[in-house]
Design a protein that fits this description.
Beta-carbonic Anhydrase, Chain A, 18 strands, CbiD-like, single chain, 2 domains, five-stranded mixed β-sheet
Length: about 375
């Protein structure tokens, strides 16, 4: 990106989505197809009016029937797995009256399961990037006398390998990455892509007819839940720290049963009402743990030790030595928090608390929803 560098309130540098990069590459390629020359840099307009300009990393003009432009994605200061990926657009003339047709090139996935905002068999190029590409095709066609009837093939170098680090295989997007973005802008550490994956995971599970899904904080809790309930892979929601985002989407798009599973530290924060469990955005409330230990009949000495423990796991171990069910009480509080958010959605919730070894140390069984 050559102009309009933007930073958020923390001073972190914003970046650009795969959809924005694909749009700019498409504009450059179609311009070259009609004029024989690639604009570099190439400027596009994003949904909120920003006008970033992108430098071309690849340009190739075929025998007059196609043109390819490539842009290296810059995710700014966000830890995005697609940062540095080379996104290419190859534009070819289409049949008269066909409009803009999209194809998945190497490294871009294909939708194989229902529940996503794209039909099964479609290339995994999301609706907003598609609309942005249609707009730049129309813009270029108007400027240089084109018909606007084109086939746009998007590809990502090493995209199939990069996609293994994403939710795409579980969502049924096979063969590569998705071309994403609703605003075109990557906000550092917003984790919007993760939250979007949680939502899409819920949509896919519902479309598959699953009546029981599980939101897990990590791979260990996911393994435990799989062993407990024999849930299929596409019923497992990798919610990570974003329990609130998961619950809010489920409230609008419910399933009959939800299991929430995670380590005692993260679930202790959820028990305290936190909906973002990241260590940088919420902390364990040891006063709450001390209150729970008191309610369980802990001695004053134990309660004070829990209050001053370094970690939730440390507090748990202190209570385990005296056979106090601290993790069960945490689980009960978690279920209350979840029920409050899901109220009226008709979802039964149960909670599973594990330690670092993956041992179940606390549970709150499902009860009929409020």
């Amino acid at each position: 990106m050559l102009m309009g560098v933007s930073r958020d309130a923390t001073g972190l540098r914003r970046g650009w989505t795969t959809g924005a990069c694909a749009t700019a590459a498409t504009k450059a390629a179609y311009t070259a197809l009609l004029t024989g020359s690639f604009p570099d840099p190439v400027e596009i307009t994003l949904p909120k009016g920003q006008r970033p300009a992108f430098a071309l990393a690849v340009e190739s003009l075929g025998d007059g029937s196609s043109a390819t432009a490539g842009i290296v994605k810059d995710a700014g200061d966000d830890p995005d797995v697609t940062h540095g990926a080379l996104i290419r657009s190859t534009v070819r003339a289409g049949e008269a009256g066909s409009g803009v047709m999209f194809r998945a090139g190497p490294g871009v996935g294909t939708v194989t399961k229902p529940g996503l905002p794209l039909a099964v068999g479609e290339p995994a190029i999301n609706p907003v990037p598609r609309q942005l590409m249609r707009e730049v095709v129309a813009e270029v066609a108007a400027a240089f006398g084109g018909s606007g009837d084109v086939v746009v093939e998007i590809s990502v170098d090493n995209g199939e390998e990069i996609a293994r680090q994403t939710w795409n295989p579980r969502l049924g997007i096979l063969g590569g990455l998705s071309i994403l973005g609703t605003t075109g802008v990557v906000v550092p550490y917003s984790c919007s892509a993760w939250i979007d994956s949680i939502r899409r995971g819920i949509d896919v599970a519902r479309a598959a007819g699953h009546r029981h899904v599980a939101g897990c904080t990590g791979s260990t809790s996911e393994r435990v839940v799989t062993e407990m309930y024999a849930l299929p892979e596409d019923a497992l929601l990798d919610m990570g720290d974003f329990v609130g985002a998961m619950l809010k989407h489920l409230r609008r798009h419910p399933v009959p049963r939800l299991t929430i599973a995670g380590g005692v530290g993260k679930l202790a924060k959820f028990a305290d009402g936190h909906l973002d469990l990241h260590s940088g955005r919420s902390q364990v409330n040891h006063a709450l743990l001390a209150d729970l230990a008191t309610a369980a009949g802990g001695s004053p000495e134990l309660v004070e030790a829990v209050r001053t423990a370094n970690t939730a796991l440390g507090a748990l171990q202190l209570c385990q030595r005296e056979a106090l069910p601290l993790a069960d009480l945490i689980a009960d509080r978690c279920r209350t928090t979840a029920d409050d958010i899901l109220r009226g959605a008709g979802i039964e919730v149960d909670i599973v608390v594990i330690d670092r070894a993956g041992t179940v140390v606390g549970r709150s069984p499902a009860t009929p929803p409020a």
